[in-house]
Specification:
Elements (H helix, E strand, L loop, with lengths): L2 H23 L5 E2 L7 H11 L3 E3 L11 E3 L8 H10 L4 E7 L5 H12 L4 E8 L5 H12 L5 E5 L2 H13 L8 E4 L1 H4 L7 H6 L4 E5 L5 H17 L11 H19 L7 H10 L3 E3 L2 E3 L1 E2 L2 E2 L4 E7 L2 E9 L3 E5 L2 E5 L26 E6 L9 E5 L4 E5 L1 H13 L5 E6 L6 H9 L5 E2 L7 H4 L2 E3 L8 E10 L13 H22 L10 H14 L12 H30 L2 E4 L4 H7 L3 E4 L4 H8 L6 E4 L2 H10 L8 E5 H10 L4 E8 L7 E3 L4 H9 L2 H15 L2 H9 L14 H25 L1 H27 L5 E4 L2 E4 L1
Helix pairs in contact: 3-4, 5-6, 12-22, 12-23, 15-16, 15-17, 15-25, 17-25
GO molecular function, one term: ligand-gated monoatomic ion channel activity
Keywords: Disulfide bond, Glycoprotein, Ion channel, Ion transport, Ligand-gated ion channel, Membrane, Receptor, Signal, Transmembrane, Transmembrane helix, Transport
Subcellular location: Membrane
């Protein structure tokens, strides 16, 4: 410990003793102040030590002791509306300039948390000393000007803020494209600032606690101005009192109210007075005075725009309603027109892609084995590199849709086997402005750079060769139709034959004979319709109608059967050489991967040993390795990210297929320095329908119609699959309804023709039944039987 700190400790002890003696001997009951945060910590310690309530209306204070009452709102309350302003204008990055004071630490931390909720990043926090010189400020502002961020949040006392903004005017940072947002440290006193200060703050947006212009407030302001003018007649322009002055008045009023409610001569006057202050509530000049946990509560802010000779209200903010233009109509959301620095009415973008106005340097990894993805070649004609591929087209399309007024140029970096992590360090160190190519998004890389959302299919899969198998077997003729369809067809053959027999056997001699002859001719007729060789002459129109419908059904069924069987006999079926990772692991097969990629780490985690892994650097090497197979120095499968496999299949469509599950990976993303605002804009651009359509077009350009290729390579042909019952259910339904209706009509006609015979038969049945009933009743009564003459017949009863 040096002599200075020893002396400072002695002075502090001496001052505390003197202050303690003053409070004790002069019977000080409470202290109002300080009005700045610099003395808050010491005064709070003094009040807590002597049990004397301290009432401070300083806006910034991190003191938290029982006898220290904060009669002004906490600075941290304003971080919510500040973050909401950034989000309302779609600004995703900002820089905070603040006074170098320990008391501002809490608001900075709260501001970071509040902006993170809106996906906004605080790019930098610059602490400025209260006595910062012009040269010091000039150096700081020039460094900030080199950053792409154009949104600055100022949190400092008015004098320092005025110096900062004056120097910002000098270096050209109060012009078109810049945004300056000041906290309540400026907004609360903006009406009392000098005209010189106001001139340096043109276009600044600030906020202040809202004070309602009630009759009580207006009368107070009128009396205050009159009295001030009487005592200071040399001053022509008397400003309205600032919000801190209104808080000071309310603080004094609260203390006077509390003193009148307690007995200050008690044994613990400080504690008694503290309790009274905490329970004091009234409508003050600055709003409702109410202390919660020793802190004044506030929920309404007024958003003002410093323009011209003063401040203009552009809206209001509350936690419940957000922004609204008029207090009388909170349904009118948003803010009024704001005039920004440079006297422009259009809201700035909030950042500049190229602060120095030069070309953006877009790094592209040198790659030659996968031309569909990224291809870098040298052109002797132009003496320059030519960069093309799927990734390049996507990036160009996005930049065109974003309409950025800045040019960029591609710069190949590294070589074909360079480590991408080392290349991304160039982006991290801001030696290049971005990296565009087949860069896989990983957690470790996200700690170095900011990635856009993946612009390719996300995942890791494998490609294997397919082997040909003979498509015929002993029972191939059964395969065209499913089991259900075979059973349904046979059932309808029997049903149709039965219906035709019912309709014909009474009137057609060809359907008569012994039972076995009738059975044979019936079902011979039904099955002969299969080849349309039935020669039996039909007599009934109903049976002819049934057969016409049935022959139509048979025609459709046989045609479909023939087509399916022909396809099965002529198309060779292709089967994957391996279908899962387990097959490859069990058989100890060699598998391939792309050299220099992160896939090798995934393969090791799946259980593959390094001795079974073989790296390749081009599509041609993939093809050669798969054709040779594990037995001949090649591999049984190649694992890679889906975009590479799509590129492979687009070139080598025949003989290969993509199989197995898809393992989740990050996909390809464009890399920018951490905090780059362009990342958010690209994320939004990806969601546009027009961009999605362009993405699909670019995908077809470089990869072709992958679905057609997959169908060919897998050998799956829709015509070779078995036909199911559902495909013909409509035909069977029509045939069944037709046969059923014909059968019902026939039975109806027959019943009509045999009406008399049926009536006699029914009467005979009824007579026989009645006779048997009488006999049963006689037996039940145990009566002897009596011969009764009935209708000429003798019946025993």
């Amino acid at each position: 410990m040096d002599l200075f700190h020893v002396l400072l400790g002695v002075l502090n002890t001496l001052f505390v003793d003197l202050a303690n003696d003053l409070i004790t001997n002069d019977r000080v009951q409470a202290i109002i102040g300080p009005h700045t945060s610099t003395e808050s910590e010491f005064i709070a310690y003094l009040g807590n030590h002597t049990h004397t309530p301290i009432l401070s209306f300083a806006e910034t204070s991190a003191v938290d002791v029982p006898f220290f009452l904060h009669t002004a709102p906490s600075d941290s309350i304003q971080v919510a509306p500040i973050a909401a302003i950034l989000d309302a204008f779609n600004w995703r990055a900002a820089v905070v300039l603040h006074q170098n004071s320990p008391s501002v630490a809490s608001i900075l931390l709260d501001l970071v948390y509040a902006t993170q909720g809106y996906n906004i990043r605080i790019m930098d926090r610059v602490a400025l000393p209260i006595d910062a010189t012009q040269d010091y400020l000039d150096n700081v502002l020039h460094n900030l000007k080199e950053m792409p961020t154009r949104v600055f949040i100022v949190h400092m006392l008015p004098d320092l803020a005025s110096n900062v903004l004056r120097q910002a005017n000098v270096v050209g940072m109060m012009s078109d494209g810049y945004v300056w947002i000041a906290t309540t440290s400026i907004g609360s006193v903006v009406d009392s600032l000098s005209s010189d200060m106001i001139d340096k703050m043109q276009g600044v947006v600030t906020l202040r606690p809202y004070v309602r212009e009630t009759g009580h407030v207006m009368k107070f302001i009128s009396r205050l101005k009159a009295r001030f003018w009487m005592e200071n007649r040399s001053i022509d322009n008397v400003h309205n009192p600032s919000v801190p002055l209104l808080w000071a008045y309310d603080t004094a009023w609260a203390l006077a109210t509390a003193v009148n409610l307690v007995n200050v001569s008690s044994s613990t006057p400080g504690t008694t007075l503290l309790g009274a202050l905490l329970n004091t509530t009234f409508d003050g000049l600055a709003g409702r005075f109410r202390l919660v946990n020793g802190q004044l509560q506030l929920s309404e802010f007024e958003i003002v725009n410093i323009i011209g000779k003063g401040a203009r209200t552009v809206g209001f903010w509350t936690p419940e309603s957000g922004f609204f233009k008029n207090l009388k109509n909170i349904s009118e959301k948003g803010l009024k027109q704001i005039i920004w620095p440079g006297d422009v009415a259009i809201a700035p973008k909030g950042w500049n892609l190229s602060p120095n106005g030069q070309f953006l340097r877009i790094a592209v990894p040198s790659k030659h084995g996968f031309p569909q993805i990224v291809d870098v070649s040298y052109s002797p004609t132009t003496n320059n590199y030519v960069v093309k591929g799927y990734c390049i087209d996507v990036f160009d399309m996005l930049m065109k849709n974003l309409h950025y007024p800045v040019a960029y140029q591609y710069e190949p970096i590294g070589n074909r086997l360079s480590n991408y992590d080392s290349l991304l360090s160039l982006v991290h160190e801001k030696k290049v402005d971005a990296m565009v190519g087949d860069t896989t998004i990983t957690v470790s890389r996200m700690n170095k750079v900011s990635f856009t959302m993946p612009f390719t299919e996300v995942g890791l899969s494998m490609v294997v060769a397919v082997k040909k198998e003979a498509s015929w077997s002993m029972w191939i003729f059964l395969r065209p139709l499913s089991t259900t369809l075979w059973i349904a067809s046979l059932a309808f053959f029997f049903f149709t034959g039965f219906v035709v027999w019912v309709l014909e056997h009474r009137i057609n001699p060809e359907f008569r004979g012994t039972p076995w002859q009738q059975f044979g001719i019936t079902f011979y007729f039904a099955f002969s319709t299969l080849v349309f060789s039935h020669k039996e002459k039909l007599e009934s129109n109903l049976s002819r109608f049934v057969v016409i419908i049935w022959v139509f059904v048979v025609l459709i069924l046989t045609s479909s059967y023939t087509a399916s069987l022909t396809s099965m006999l002529t198309v060779q079926q292709l089967q994957p050489a391996a279908t899962s990772v387990q097959d490859l692991l069990i058989n100890g097969n060699y598998v391939g991967y792309q050299k220099g990629s992160t896939v090798v780490r995934w393969l090791e985690e799946m259980g593959f040993h390094m001795e079974n892994l073989r790296g390749y650097a081009s599509l041609e090497e993939y093809d050669d390795a798969l054709r040779r197979g594990s037995e001949n120095g090649g591999v049984s499968a190649v694992f890679d990210e889906i975009p590479y496999l799509k590129a492979f299949l687009s070139k080598y469509c025949q003989g290969y297929t993509m199989v197995g599950p898809t393992y989740r990976l990050g996909g390809f993303g464009f890399a920018f320095p951490i905090g780059s605002p362009i990342v958010h804009d690209i994320w939004q651009a990806f969601m546009l329908p027009s961009v999605q359509e362009e993405m699909a077009r670019i995908d077809r350009k470089w990869f072709g119609d992958t679905q057609t290729c997959e169908g060919k390579s897998s050998g799956v042909d829709s015509s070779s699959s078995s036909l199911g019952f559902s495909s013909f259910s409509g035909l069977f339904f029509i045939s069944g309804i037709t046969s059923g209706l014909a059968l019902l009509v026939h039975l109806g006609i027959l019943a009509y023709q045999k009406h008399d015979e049926l009536r006699a038969a029914v009467a005979g049945i009824i007579r026989a039944a009645s006779q048997r009933m009488c006999l049963l009743l006689r037996r039940l009564r145990s009566e002897p039987e009596v011969d009764v003459l009935h209708g000429g017949d003798t019946v025993s009863l």
